[in-house]
Amino acid sequence: MNDLLLVINAGSSSIKFSLFENTPSDPTLLYKGQMEGIYVTPHFTAKDASDKKLVDEDLPAELPKSHDTSLRHILKWLDTVTAGRKIGVIGHRVVHGGTRFSKPELVTPEVIVELEKLIPLAPLHEPHNITPIKIMGELLPGVPQVVCFDTAFHSGQPELNQLYALPYELSLKEGIRRYGFHGLSYEYIASVLPQIDTKAAEGRTVVAHLGNGSSMAALLACKGIASTMGFTALEGLPMGTRTGSIDAGVVLHLINHLKMDAKQIEDLLYKQSGLLGLSGISSDMRDLEDSGTVRAKLAIDYFVSKVVREAASLAAALEGFDALVFTAGIGENGADVRLDVCRQLRWLGVEIDEAANKVRSGEPRRISLPDSKIAVYVIPTNEELVIARASRACIAS
Ligand code: AMP
């Protein structure tokens, strides 16, 4: 029976996967896992749906280190646990859909050509999203593949929120415009919001996706109208190792006066900045909270202050908002960050319930006081489920 649905989220050094059962209602998670350190020391972990660890091992050192080897290994392991059941659909996360893709698409040779044209827009991500599509086409020929885009959720933003004040032709001819990312996460939040808060789902919501990569989005009736991320996943909030927004003049200064080349600047902006750059300690919020040094506190305070300022900016785009949603690693687990953000947004009408904020749970929950003008929620995101749902809908249509 071809009743399994495989979701793949591939990066430069890791491949995450989730295997779903394609049940008539919603896809149901069976297994999830990842191959990390693909080109250094490939390490494979897998869990079942209850989070029980089933595998935690290095790949044999003699195997070639590649995405191909990793995907073969994942498929071989899945074969052992699924006892002859077959994968009927494969869904891939693709970071950039450009102006060409604003919804999930069935993979065809033409689609792959179009995806390759988008590589210059996301050179650090797009190639690693495309590679597994080609490999899976060879390993499981005939199994339909669907691509789901992180930019798609934002494609309906008003033009004003998609533009930079560059010569207009650069937007038209070169696609230099604000796309927004983390769309699969926002899509998930938009899909569950109606069951959690009808008023917010029909009204105005600010979602803070705070993780290793962080962004925020303004949702009007669950549709994205503004986002902190733009042309690349570098704009907006500071992140684990990324700067977030900086004056473009800094880049010119780095070139003209510090004589840095493009690769050095790319490394600086993407890999040495953000929480890591400010703290000098770590890109990981937990490490900074545990560290207690002045620089760690500075990094956390900077992060919080930018979340607050972006929330106010998105509030302006929405003319106020009814709900604030925290999601992703820091948003879901970082109670201290949430508390600081909410305290600094008190002037806007946010009244946090400090006891509720401290509760640890994997479930969606309200963390604002009953009379808070703006309702605040923690909603665990589920990008894989969005890909699974979209992939099967795409095949069905
Ligand atoms: P993500 O990219 O969504 O997996 O999020 C990763 C980020 O979430 C890292 O900065 C982690 O330190 C952070 N994180 C995870 N758990 C906690 C926690 N309990 N408190 C604060 N930050 C956390």
TrEMBL record:
<keyword id="KW-0547">Nucleotide-binding</keyword>
<keyword id="KW-0479">Metal-binding</keyword>
<comment type="pathway">
    <text>Metabolic intermediate biosynthesis; acetyl-CoA biosynthesis; acetyl-CoA from acetate: step 1/2.</text>
</comment>
<dbReference type="InterPro" id="IPR000890">
    <property type="entry name" value="Aliphatic_acid_kin_short-chain"/>
</dbReference>
<feature type="active site" description="Proton donor/acceptor">
    <location>
        <position position="150"/>
    </location>
</feature>
<feature type="binding site">
    <location>
        <position position="9"/>
    </location>
    <ligand>
        <name>Mg(2+)</name>
    </ligand>
</feature>
<feature type="binding site">
    <location>
        <begin position="284"/>
        <end position="286"/>
    </location>
    <ligand>
        <name>ATP</name>
    </ligand>
</feature>
<feature type="binding site">
    <location>
        <begin position="329"/>
        <end position="333"/>
    </location>
    <ligand>
        <name>ATP</name>
    </ligand>
</feature>
<keyword id="KW-0418">Kinase</keyword>
<feature type="binding site">
    <location>
        <begin position="209"/>
        <end position="213"/>
    </location>
    <ligand>
        <name>ATP</name>
    </ligand>
</feature>
<comment type="subunit">
    <text>Homodimer.</text>
</comment>
<dbReference type="InterPro" id="IPR043129">
    <property type="entry name" value="ATPase_NBD"/>
</dbReference>
<keyword id="KW-0808">Transferase</keyword>
<feature type="site" description="Transition state stabilizer">
    <location>
        <position position="182"/>
    </location>
</feature>
<dbReference type="InterPro" id="IPR023865">
    <property type="entry name" value="Aliphatic_acid_kinase_CS"/>
</dbReference>
<feature type="binding site">
    <location>
        <position position="383"/>
    </location>
    <ligand>
        <name>Mg(2+)</name>
    </ligand>
</feature>
<protein>
    <recommendedName>
        <fullName>Acetate kinase</fullName>
        <ecNumber>2.7.2.1</ecNumber>
    </recommendedName>
</protein>
<keyword id="KW-0067">ATP-binding</keyword>
<comment type="function">
    <text>Catalyzes the formation of acetyl phosphate from acetate and ATP. Can also catalyze the reverse reaction.</text>
</comment>
<keyword id="KW-0460">Magnesium</keyword>
<feature type="site" description="Transition state stabilizer">
    <location>
        <position position="242"/>
    </location>
</feature>
<dbReference type="GO" id="GO:0008776">
    <property type="term" value="F:acetate kinase activity"/>
</dbReference>
<dbReference type="InterPro" id="IPR004372">
    <property type="entry name" value="Ac/propionate_kinase"/>
</dbReference>
<feature type="binding site">
    <location>
        <position position="93"/>
    </location>
    <ligand>
        <name>substrate</name>
    </ligand>
</feature>
<feature type="binding site">
    <location>
        <position position="16"/>
    </location>
    <ligand>
        <name>ATP</name>
    </ligand>
</feature>
<comment type="similarity">
    <text>Belongs to the acetokinase family.</text>
</comment>
<dbReference type="Pfam" id="PF00871">
    <property type="entry name" value="Acetate_kinase"/>
</dbReference>
<keyword id="KW-0963">Cytoplasm</keyword>
